[in-house]
Write a structure and sequence with these properties.
The protein has 202 residues and is α+β, with helices and mostly antiparallel strands. The protein is 61% helix and 14% strand. Helix 1 runs antiparallel to helix 2 and helix 2 runs antiparallel to helix 4.
Length: 202
């Protein structure tokens, strides 16, 4: 089984490696994120709650006057699923580029399928990142310590950092950019381009 590196000397192969890496980062930072809300009251009562993936939040104990009820599981699970599907597809297509690149070049169906699947995953990244961004915004709003403190007088609340969550959102939109930017280079491998090449009119 001969290894062929020609595909990785071209943008389509280089971007595939970046997609592989950042898809892992996206679903790992989301599924691995957790944040803890802690309360300290003047009567000596302490309580805390840790929110973690898939963020089905239902807590009425932290502050009885401010029940924290939120379910953004569908948003984050779709985002994570997109990352996992992208990761698996990258493994498959990188294998094709490495071992079967000559077949990829000679069989017109393979670049066309590659292009179509890349379009689908690019759309998934856009919709998944937008949905998860909305879900994350809702989670930040409902766990705002100022709102909780105002609802429960005599108690002080603190919450951990959302830095990892923010990173997952940035990486999500970066993935959308990577998958859309690779479309042109994959399109050039398809029969659509070879039959109707785009030439300059200048």
């Amino acid at each position: 089984m001969a290894i062929q590196i020609q595909g990785f000397l071209e943008p389509r192969g280089i971007i595939r490696i970046l997609q592989f890496v950042f898809s892992i980062v996206a679903f790992a930072t989301t599924s691995g994120f957790s944040v803890t809300l802690e309360g300290q009251c003047t009567n000596g009562i302490k309580n805390s709650e840790t929110f973690h993936y898939p963020f089905m939040i239902s807590n009425k104990d932290i502050c009885p006057n401010y029940p924290i009820l939120l379910n953004v599981s569908s948003d984050c699970q779709f985002f994570v699923a997109t990352g996992v599907l992208s990761f698996l597809y990258c493994i498959f297509i990188i294998f094709i580029y490495l071992v079967k690149d000559e077949l990829y070049q000679s069989r017109k169906e393979l670049p066309m399928a590659d292009f179509i699947l890349t379009v689908i995953l690019a759309v998934f990244w856009l919709s998944g990142s937008a949905a998860w961004s909305n879900g994350a915004s809702q989670m930040k709003s409902i766990t705002d310590v100022n709102l909780i403190s105002n609802a429960c007088k005599g108690c002080t609340y603190t919450i951990g950092s959302f830095g990892k969550l923010n990173s997952s959102l940035i990486v999500g939109f970066l993935n959308f950019f990577l998958w859309t930017s690779n479309l042109w280079f994959i399109y050039k491998e398809t029969i659509w381009f070879t039959k109707h090449p785009i030439t300059s009119t200048a």
